C-alpha cells in the first residue's frame, strides 16, 4: 500500500466515465448479441465472450442499487472501472492506484465489500465520506472479523487472511481520490495510515504452502479405486452408455402409444414371458418416491423403456389401464429387473483377478449415477497425475486429447490441450499439458461417457472432495466395492489443490525435481514450487548463501591485498586510514611472532587469511572507497540517517571524505580523478550558471584533495594520470 495522499486535487465536476461503454473501456469482449453495459446504469450485466468456466454468472451481474446511498454508487462504479482499466487516461492521473488489470471476479469481490462498507456508514448516519475516521474503519473491520450467525450456531472469529480484503476495500477509496467525482475521503486521510492489509489484520507470511497433501492412507486406496474404475470398469460402462444413447435417439423419433396400440404392446409382454425375461424396472429411488402407492403392483415398471421396445416414444396415460392386466400377469411370472447391462461380461476382480460380472442389471437412473461416479474417478485420476488446478480442469473440452507422439527410446508422449487461467489475461491463455498414459485413458473414457460435441466442457464439476464422498457412498450402498474387491476409501478431504500439492511433493523428491515440478505445474516462479514442495526459500536461500560466500571470499581477498600493499609501502588514505594501518601493524606483528615460532607458516597464506578474516567481515565495498564498519556509532551515514543501531552501513549515503571508517586505495583513484575532471568541465563551461559553478567548486576541491591524499600515501607510477 502506498504512502498517504497529502494534497489530492479537487473532485471532478463530472465522472470521467459518464456515458461510457464499460466493456469497451475495460477491453472486455461481449458475447455475440449481448447488450452493451453503460456506466450510468445501476446494474451491469456483462455477457462476456471470454468468460472462463470457473466464473459464476452472478459474478458478472453487478447490482450497484444494493448500495443505499446513491452518491456512493457512482464512487463504487468509478473504482471498479478503474480497477478494470488502469491504463485509462483518467486513471493514469491517480499516482497511487494499482497498474495491474484486475479481473471481473476480483472486482466483484471489491463490489461486495464496498457495498458492506458504504451501507455500514449509512447505518451510522454518515452521508459524506469526508466524515470517515480511523475509528470507524477499525470498528467496521472488527465487525467483519466475526462470522455471520447461521442456523443458531455461535459466531466465531475468522482467520486474519480472510479479512484482508476488508482493509483493502476501505483503503481503495483513498487511492482513487483523484478519479472520484461525487465524494471522497478528507484530503490526506488514508485508513490505517497506508499500512498493508496483512500488517493491519496481523496476517503472517507463510513460506511453505498451507494446503496439506492428501495422506497416504487416503491417497493409495483412492487412486487404486479410481484407476480400476477407469481401466477395467469404465470401458464396460461406456459400452452400455453408448448403447442407451443410440436407443434413446431412436426412441425420440417414435410416436405415442395409444389405446389402439395396446394389442401390439400385449404381444410384446408375451415375448417377455416366453423368454422368461424380467420386465424393465425403474431405479430404487424412483420406487421410493411413490411409496404411498403400495397397492400399485406395477410401481417398479419402467413404462417408457418398455414401450420404446415396441417403437413408441411413450405411452398415453389413457392407454395404461388397458395394458395393465397383461403386464400384471407377466410380472407375476418374470418379475422386474434393470433394463441395462443384463448380460454383463466378466471382469477381473481387483487384487485376485477372479472373473466376476461387472454389474447387476441397471435401471436408467442407476446408469446415470454410475456415469456420474465414473466421471468423478476420471477427474481424480486427471487431477492427481497431472497436477492441474481446478480452473484448468474446468477448461478441458471434449477433443482436448492430441495424438500420442513417439519419442526416442520407443516411448509415447501424451498431451492435453486446454487453458491456463491463473496469472493470465481474462479468459486464460491456451496451453498444453504433457501427461502420463493413465490420464490420457481417463480423458478418453470421460469423452465417451459424456457423449457431447467437440469443444464443449468435459467436466462440469471439479469439487473433488464432494465427488469422492459421493463415489465412496455409491460403492458401499450398491455393494460394488465388495463385488469388485476394491479397498475401503477412508473419509477425508481430497480436493484438487491437495492432489496438486501431493504431486508436487512427489516430483520434488526426485533428482532435479524442483525444476521438473515447476514445469509440470506451470508455476511462474520456482519459489512457488518450493512452497509446494515444503522447501520454502530453497533456491533463494542457496543463492543468497552462494552470494554471501562469494562476497566473503572477495572481501577477504581485498583485505589481503590491502595488507600486502601496506607491507610494500602503498598505504591507504582517507579518514579511516590510521585505524586500518594500526590493525595491519598488529597483524604484521603476529605474523612475525609466528615466523619465529613456526617458520613453515610463512609458506602459506592460510594463517594470514585467518588473522584478517575478522577484519574482512567488516568490509563494505563502495564505488569510491572501502568502508570498515567496525563501530556503528562512528559511521557518518548512520548518524546522518538517524539510525545508529543499524547493522550495515548505508553505502548510498557515504561521504568517504569525512567518515572516520572510510579509506581510499589506489584502485579508487580513477573514480575520484574522473569526478574532478568532470566537475572541471562544468566549471569551465560558459553555459553553466555562475551560482551552479560556485556550488561545484567545493566538490572539485574535495575530489582533488582525495586524489592528492591517495598519491601521497601511495605514489602514482610514472605515466599514470
Could you characterize what this model shows?
- Mean pLDDT is 87; it is low at 1-9 and 717-721.
- This protein has 721 residues and is mainly α.
- The strands form 6 sheets. A 3-stranded antiparallel beta sheet has the order 9-10-11.
- It contains 26 helices and 14 strands.
- Helices cover 48% and strands 7% of the residues.
- Helix 4 (104-123) crosses helix 6 (164-175) and helix 25 (669-684) packs antiparallel against helix 26 (690-713).
- The longest helix is centred in the first third of the chain and has 36 residues, at 216-251.
- The chain is elongated and about 125 Å long.
Report the average pLDDT across residues.
87
Rg from Cα: 39 Å
Strand content: 5-15%
Low-pLDDT runs of 5+ residues are 1-9, 717-721
| Helicity level | 40-55%
How is the largest sheet built, in terms of strand order? 9-10-11
Helix-strand makeup class: mainly alpha
What would the principal axes of the Cα set say about the shape? Answer: elongated
> Given the structure, what is the number of helices?
26
Count of β-strands: 14
Give a short account of the largest sheet. 3 strands, antiparallel
Distance between the termini: 51 Å
List keywords for this structure.
elongated, 721 residues, 3-stranded antiparallel sheet, disordered N terminus, 48% helix, disordered C terminus, mainly alpha
Amino acid at each position: 500500500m502506498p504512502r498517504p495522499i497529502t494534497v489530492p486535487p479537487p473532485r471532478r465536476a463530472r465522472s470521467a466515465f459518464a456515458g461510457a461503454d464499460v466493456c469497451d473501456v475495460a477491453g472486455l469482449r461481449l458475447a455475440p448479441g449481448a447488450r452493451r453495459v453503460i456506466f450510468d446504469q445501476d446494474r451491469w450485466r456483462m455477457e462476456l465472450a471470454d468468460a472462463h468456466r470457473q466464473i459464476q454468472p452472478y459474478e458478472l451481474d453487478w447490482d450497484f442499487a444494493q448500495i443505499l446511498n446513491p452518491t456512493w454508487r457512482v464512487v463504487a462504479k468509478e473504482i471498479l472501472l478503474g480497477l478494470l482499466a488502469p491504463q485509462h487516461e483518467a486513471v493514469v492521473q491517480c499516482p497511487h492506484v494499482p497498474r495491474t488489470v484486475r479481473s471481473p471476479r476480483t472486482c466483484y469481490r471489491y463490489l461486495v465489500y464496498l457495498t458492506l462498507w458504504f451501507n455500514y456508514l449509512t447505518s451510522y448516519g454518515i452521508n459524506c465520506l469526508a466524515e470517515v475516521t480511523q475509528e470507524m474503519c477499525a470498528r467496521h473491520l472488527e465487525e467483519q472479523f466475526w462470522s455471520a450467525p447461521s442456523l443458531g450456531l455461535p459466531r466465531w472469529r475468522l482467520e486474519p487472511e480472510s479479512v484482508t480484503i476488508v482493509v483493502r476495500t476501505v483503503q481503495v477509496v483513498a487511492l482513487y481520490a483523484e478519479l472520484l467525482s461525487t465524494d471522497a475521503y478528507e484530503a490526506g486521510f488514508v485508513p490505517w495510515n497506508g499500512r498493508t492489509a496483512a500488517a493491519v489484520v496481523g496476517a503472517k507470511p507463510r513460506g511453505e504452502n498451507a494446503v496439506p497433501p492428501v495422506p497416504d492412507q487416503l491417497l493409495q486406496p483412492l487412486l487404486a479405486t479410481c484407476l480400476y474404475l477407469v481401466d477395467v470398469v469404465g470401458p464396460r460402462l461406456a459400452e452400455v452408455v453408448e448403447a442407451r444413447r443410440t436407443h434413446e435417439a431412436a426412441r425420440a423419433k417414435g410416436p405415442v402409444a395409444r389405446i389402439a396400440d395396446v394389442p401390439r404392446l400385449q404381444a410384446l409382454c408375451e415375448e417377455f414371458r416366453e423368454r422368461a425375461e424380467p420386465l424393465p424396472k425403474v431405479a430404487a429411488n424412483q420406487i421410493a418416491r411413490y411409496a404411498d402407492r403400495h397397492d400399485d403392483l406395477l410401481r417398479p415398471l419402467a413404462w417408457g423403456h418398455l414401450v420404446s421396445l415396441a417403437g413408441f416414444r411413450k405411452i398415453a396415460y389413457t392407454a395404461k389401464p388397458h395394458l395393465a392386466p397383461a403386464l400384471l400377469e407377466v410380472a407375476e411370472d418374470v418379475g422386474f429387473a434393470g433394463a441395462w447391462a443384463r448380460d454383463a461380461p466378466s471382469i477381473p476382480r481387483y487384487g485376485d483377478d477372479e472373473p466376476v460380472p461387472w454389474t447387476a442389471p441397471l435401471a436408467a437412473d442407476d446408469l446415470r449415477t454410475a456415469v456420474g461416479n465414473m466421471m468423478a474417478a476420471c477427474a481424480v485420476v486427471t487431477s492427481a497425475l497431472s497436477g492441474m488446478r481446478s480452473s484448468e480442469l474446468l477448461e478441458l473440452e471434449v477433443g482436448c486429447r492430441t495424438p500420442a507422439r513417439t519419442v526416442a527410446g520407443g516411448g509415447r508422449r501424451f498431451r492435453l490441450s486446454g487453458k491456463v487461467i491463473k496469472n493470465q489475461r481474462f479468459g486464460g491463455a491456451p496451453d498444453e499439458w504433457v501427461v502420463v498414459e493413465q490420464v490420457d485413458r481417463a480423458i478418453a473414457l470421460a469423452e465417451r461417457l459424456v457423449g457431447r460435441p467437440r469443444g464443449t466442457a468435459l467436466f462440469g464439476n471439479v469439487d473433488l472432495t464432494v465427488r469422492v464422498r459421493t463415489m465412496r457412498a455409491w460403492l458401499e450402498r450398491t455393494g460394488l466395492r465388495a463385488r469388485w474387491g476394491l479397498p475401503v476409501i477412508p473419509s477425508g478431504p481430497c480436493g484438487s489443490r491437495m492432489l496438486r500439492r501431493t504431486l508436487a511433493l512427489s516430483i520434488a523428491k526426485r533428482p532435479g525435481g524442483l525444476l521438473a515440478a515447476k514445469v509440470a505445474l506451470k508455476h511462474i516462479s520456482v519459489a512457488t514450487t518450493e512452497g509446494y514442495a515444503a522447501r520454502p526459500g530453497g533456491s533463494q536461500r542457496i543463492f543468497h548463501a552462494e552470494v554471501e560466500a562469494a562476497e566473503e571470499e572477495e572481501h577477504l581477498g581485498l583485505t589481503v591485498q590491502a595488507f600486502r600493499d601496506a607491507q610494500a609501502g602503498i598505504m591507504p588514505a582517507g579518514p579511516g586510514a590510521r585505524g586500518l594501518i594500526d590493525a595491519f601493524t598488529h597483524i604484521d606483528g603476529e605474523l612475525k611472532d609466528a615466523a619465529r615460532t613456526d617458520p613453515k607458516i610463512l609458506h602459506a597464506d592460510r594463517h594470514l587469511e585467518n588473522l584478517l578474516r575478522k577484519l574482512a567481515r567488516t568490509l563494505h565495498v563502495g564505488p569510491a572507497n572501502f568502508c570498515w564498519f567496525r563501530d556503528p556509532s562512528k559511521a557518518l551515514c548512520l548518524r546522518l540517517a538517524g539510525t545508529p543501531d543499524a547493522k550495515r552501513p548505508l553505502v548510498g549515503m557515504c561521504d568517504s571524505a569525512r567518515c572516520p571508517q572510510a579509506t581510499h586505495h589506489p584502485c579508487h583513484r580513477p573514480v575520484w580523478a574522473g569526478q574532478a575532471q568532470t566537475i572541471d568541465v562544468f566549471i569551465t563551461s560558459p553555459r553553466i550558471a555562475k551560482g551552479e559553478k560556485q556550488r561545484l567548486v567545493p566538490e572539485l576541491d574535495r575530489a582533488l584533495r582525495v586524489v592528492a591524499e591517495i598519491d601521497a600515501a601511495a605514489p602514482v607510477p610514472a605515466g599514470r594520470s
